[in-house]
Amino acid sequence: MISSAAFIAICVFVVRPGISRIIRKTPEGENFSEFYICLILTGVMICGFITDSIGTHSVFGAFVFGLVIPNGPLGLTLIEKLEDFVSGLLLPLFFAISGLKTNVAAIQGPATWVTLFLVIFLACTGKVIGTVVVAFFHGMPVREGITLGLLLNTKGLVEMIVLNVGKDQKVLDDETFATMVLIALVMTGVITPIVTVLYKPVKRSVSYKRRTIQQTKPDSELRVLVCVHTPRNVPTIINLLEASHPTKRSPICIYVLHLVELTGRASAMLIVHNTRKSGKPALNRTQAQSDHIINAFENYEQHAAFVAVQALTAISPYSTMHEDVCSLAENKRVSFIIIPFHKQQTVDGGMEATNPAYRLVNQNLLGNSPCSVGILVDRGLNGATRLTSNTISLQVAVLFFGGPDDREALAYAWRMAEHPWISLTVLRFIPDEDVTDAASTRATNETNRNMNVDMKKQRQLDDEYVNTFRAANAEYETIVYIDKVVSNGEETVAAVRSMDSSHDLFIVGRREGMLSPLTAGLTDWSECPELGAIGDLLASSDFAATVSVLVVQQYVGPWAQDDEMDLPDSPVHYHDQPNAIYGLEDPS
Q1: pLDDT tens for each residue of 190-224
Q2: What is the pLDDT of residues 289-334, one digit of tens each?
Q3: How confident is the model at residue 451 (pLDDT cuts 50, 70, 90)?
Q4: Cα distances (angstroms) measured from residue 275 to each of 329, 404, 571
Q5: 340, 287 Cβ separation under 8 angstroms
Q6: Which domains, ranges and CATH numbers included, belong to the chain?
Q7: How far apart are the first and last CA of the chain?
Q8: What's the confidence (pLDDT) of residue 170?
Q9: 148-178 in b/e burial notation, b at 16+ Cβ within 10 A?
Q10: Cα 221 to the chain's mean position, in Å?
Q11: pTM of the predicted model, to two decimals?
């Protein structure tokens, strides 16, 4: 024990400062040299040898050495280099060796087997009962208490290590070791299917009606959730938010969510930042990016009018990252989610993918979002850098074909058009009469007839909303409405290309599931179906203009009509400085 205490003291007061010095000598953002990695791995073996020599166990030495390595880039680098080797080779070998050590024949006699199952039952029941009692006093449902109690009975790697250490040290004989291994195996194997059957988490939908921009009242707060992957996404998003025209009558509450891939830790987490409190210096690149993003939005909040910002960081795997976004959007009663496109513009004007996993997040979010979603194709909101002058410099265009997504796009553009320095052009594409008659003639069977009825209903809703928009904005010179009659996809593309050089931002609907002869053939060569036919055309590298694009999908599910659910869940403070748009420098 004295030797072990001395070993721990040496690791804490000698080894840890040495590793911290290695971290300080490596510049931020650069990889650690192979020499340092080999030195640390050698240290693992040396520590294991020392503790084995003093009579403890080699696992204890390696464990203590791992504890003294500071959290940060070095730990992440070690995990990246060793995770595949350890999980793919060493871990299966360890479990295989543990299985070979287990001599089930050492458990002799029915009394021993009865004792074995009695221990399993009592151990499991005791934890479940204790957890249910505590859960009851904390107001948790009984079903969740039972589930949590069952999860406490699962065994894993640590238990197997302890049992192997006990056997190596002659503390456990063959019979006891086999009994404990079987207990761990049976409890873990049985509990998993029981929990799967017993606990089926149903998504608790928060009842609020303002899940879309179209349903948000003009004199109420607009809540927006902004997702950011890297600091490069920040300038265009801030300019877009400022162009959304926050006013005293209709302020904007912005939730900024920095999306970070889960690496180097066991479970996902959500971090809430205080944007008005300066933090400590960044320990790693991820934290430095978060600080950069938070500082940019904090600066925007301080200088803009009627804007409130709350910054958060979500650390989770890309495969489940959309669940964090959806959960936060629902808890905060958000009306609109803005997320960056997975491609970015290159120097020559083309588009290249930054991370294929971003596309998976976008696709999952579109399929599960509790509110409207906008995918922002960032090509630099060029006009926004000139909005400090007294002239209209930001030209916004809406390509309206019809359907709920296009109506949502028009609703967002309508809000932007109220800004005194923003002009809006709405180009509505109307099918030629011959095309309409041909579509009606083909509606012979029941499926086509139902589709035709739905198209007529959508067209009626489109007409009502467009007429309301035109009547409300007839006197404004900065808002232009144009009807464009086209017959096929080629004429549609020609009309879109005729507008590409005179606008800074296109807002279009995704139009998922909306069939139209006006976009026929455009989806056949689509690279990114999640943008829709028109959005994919505008975002493609073949499109001549370098214009930012916002592809909007409206939430069409049911929402509650209880006005009480629209009350803010926390006090929101807005700044009252004069309204202005800031063209920030690219922080990357």
Answers
A1: 888 888 888 776 555 567 778 899 989 888 999 99
A2: 888 899 999 999 988 889 999 999 999 999 899 999 999 999 999 9
A3: low
A4: 19, 36, 15
A5: no
A6: 2-101 (no CATH), 104-198 (no CATH), 209-371 (3.40.50.620), 375-554 (3.40.50.620)
A7: 52
A8: 86
A9: bbbeebebeeebbeebbbbbeeeebeeeebb
A10: 24
A11: 0.73
- For residue 19, the Cα-to-chain-centroid distance in whole angstroms is 34
Please give the pLDDT value at position 347: 76
pLDDT, position 133? 93
User: H helices then E strands: how many in the chain?
Assistant: 19, 13
Radius of gyration of the chain (CA): 30
Higher pLDDT pick, 520 / 534: 534
pLDDT score, position 339: 96
Q: Are strands 372-377 and 548-553 parallel, antiparallel or unpaired?
A: antiparallel
Largest CA distance in the chain: 95
Query: Residue 201: CB partners within 8 Å, gap ≥ 6?
Result: none
Q: What is the pLDDT of residues 3-34, one digit of tens each?
A: 999 999 999 999 999 998 888 888 766 778 88
| Amino acid making up residue 46 | I
Residue with tokens 């063209």: 583
Question: What are the residue ranges of helices labelled H in 271-353?
Answer: 285-303, 321-331
Sign for the CA dihedral angle at 292, 298, 301, 304 comes to negative
For residue 335, what are the contacts with CB-CB under 8 A and spacing of at least 6? 210, 211, 212, 213, 215, 216, 222, 223, 224, 371, 372
Asked whether the predicted pLDDT for residue 157 surpasses 90, the reply is: no
* DSSP 3-state of 519: helix
Q: Of 71-75, 188-192, 215-219, 251-255, give the range with the top mean pLDDT.
A: 251-255
Residue 131 has pLDDT above 70, yes or no: yes
Closest alpha carbon to 227 in 399, 366, 380, 384: 366
Cβ–Cβ contacts within 10 Å for residue 495, how many? 17
Helix (H, G, I), strand (E, B) or coil at 251: coil
Cα separation of 546 and 349, whole Å? Answer: 7
Identity at 403, one-letter amino acid code:
G
Burial of 443 (0-12, 13-18, 19+ CB in 10 A): middle
Distances (CA, A) of 317 to 79, 262, 314, 321, 480: 15, 5, 10, 6, 45
Calpha distance 204→206 (Å, rounded): 6
If one compares 449 and 146, the residue with the highest pLDDT of the two is 146
Enumerate the H helices of 86-141 as residue ranges: 91-101, 110-137
Percent of the chain with pLDDT over 90: 36
Cβ count within 10 A of residue 98 = 17
For the residues of 353-395, what is the DSSP string, one character each?
ES-HHHHHHHHHHHHH-SSEEEEEE-S--GGGGGTTSSS--EE
Closest CA to 165 of 229, 98, 218, 105: 98
